Amino acid sequence: MKWKILFFSLLGINGFIIVLLLFYMFQPSPSPNIPNIEGEGPIFTVQTSKQHMNTLIRDYIQKHGKKGELSYDVQLADRLYIISAIPIFGKQVDLTMAFDPTVDENGHIVLAHPTMTFGQLRLPVPYVLSYIDQHASLPNWVKVDAKKERIYIVVSDIRIKKGYMLKAKTFDLSKDDMTFTVTITK
Question: Cα separation of 23 and 99, whole Å?
């Protein structure tokens, strides 16, 4: 009789273990709690150099520059240079502007501390910036503030592709480090 009690006890324990295993096996597994941020998606960081940025800027200007208006070229070196030529008395005179780029808290590039020369003559910065604002074929994401002597590149307005948003993180020419974040939006 004692063996019957031990047998049925062992059978009950085994049955309980099988039922417990089946119970846990058919429960949904826990998933990580990932917050869903409205309007934001994955963020990627892109780092580039002056050489690659110069190529990218040159290609953009060639593809999107309006014909017949003041043409210009942008070059990154120790500073950011905007180079153009203005016709005077039938001869092209070089206009060179140099800026120190920084990134503001909104991820926009601010071109500040300008120096401007017309040939070898230094020019008043507000006058030249007003002229550029009126006559150059600038993209809508480039804002000229002649009074503050600055040019703002509103990086978030640059549409690389629908559903992607761009912001500048660093723009350090001395370290050859230009870093941007690309956010995939919904």
Answer: 69
Residues of the chain predicted below pLDDT 50: 31, 34, 36-38
What CA–CA distance (Å, rounded) separates 98 from 76?
Answer: 10
Give per-residue pLDDT as tens, 136-174.
Answer: 777 888 899 988 999 999 988 887 778 888 899 999 999
| Distance from C-alpha of 53 to C-alpha of 41, rounded to nearest angstrom | 25
Burial class of residue 10 in the structure, from the number of CB atoms within 10 Å of its CB (0-12 exposed, 13-18 middle, 19+ buried): exposed
Full-model pTM = 0.69
Measure Cα distances from 65 to 4, 86, 91, 109, 118 in Å. Answer: 95, 16, 22, 20, 22
Q: Does an H or E element contain 14, and which?
A: helix 2-25
- Give the integer Cα–Cα distance in Å for 3 and 73: 97
Written as one letter, the residue type at 126 is P
